[in-house]
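re the bet — no i am not wrong, look at it urself. input seq straight from the record:
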Amino acid sequence: MSSPDSGHDTSLAGQQWRLASLESCEDRLRGLREQENHLEVEHIAARAALKSAEARGKLDMDPALAKRIGHALELRRELEERLCSADEMHTARKVGNSRQADRLRAGCAALQAWLDASRPRKPAPVVAAAKIMLLVVTILTVWAAIAIHPAFLLILAMVIGPVSFAMGRGQDAEWHRVAARRRFATSGLPDFDTWTDDGVRAHLAELEPMLETAALERARDDDDVSDSPPVDTEAITRQIAGNNRQLASDLAAAGLTIENTTGDSGSWLRSLAGAERAQEALHRVKSERARFGAEAVELRRQLQDYLLSQGVKPTELEDTSAAISQRLDDLAKSS
């Protein structure tokens, strides 16, 4: 963190640089102190778990080999959890966005159909031709009833009447609106009360931007499918395969099988590795804290020497970066 010639820089600007370095060291030390306290608790818990596991399922084997097997078991568990979590998160996000886009698309289509139902409709060519045929059949039926037998009038009641009613209903706005409202209800979107032209139009205006956003998210998920997830899962799968090969080799060297890694024996192996991992993590943080502490002491000494060389007397306050900063500011103002 300190530059090679920082101890020879006697300018006020150089001291400001040292002060910034000291402040950074002190911030880092505070974070490391909190981390160390947390790791101390984890280390104590890991040692307690190991002691309990030893009483239940300790195996008579080489300690170094037991630790290596324990680490391999923990690594396999972590890798399998990462693989499962990556697949679940990707699938859940993709399915969720896809379903939301489908719901919004169906809902918007239903609302638009509801609004379109009130607009004048031009009969389709098939409907127009069917009406002409019905008219012809009606005329022929009436003629037959008069010329041949009145029973032909039953055709009007039994066939032509219902067909004509059904064709008319197909052109009726209310029937179209009822069908559109049913389609909206089956879309999965929450229903609303204002089924009027203005209400439906306003609700459609709210849903359309949501549909655009959902469609973009769905497209983004489709792009992700062809990019990062396959690479990540393949890398994790390769790690699992390599770890399994090493685990099988270590188990064979210890005269064990995969069955020995379950139950109390497996708990002991994992606890052994967990205790060692907790101890190593605590040792790393303590070493890093000692390094930053030594650097902070050296920076503080250099700043104190400079202040003394400029005739600034030390105070009774602790020589923190804040206290030294105040003395440097006073020196700058008096210069």
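see?? The CA atoms of residues 32 and 289 lie 6 Å apart. told u. also Residues 1-7, 165-171, 225-229 have pLDDT under 50 and may be disordered. so pay up
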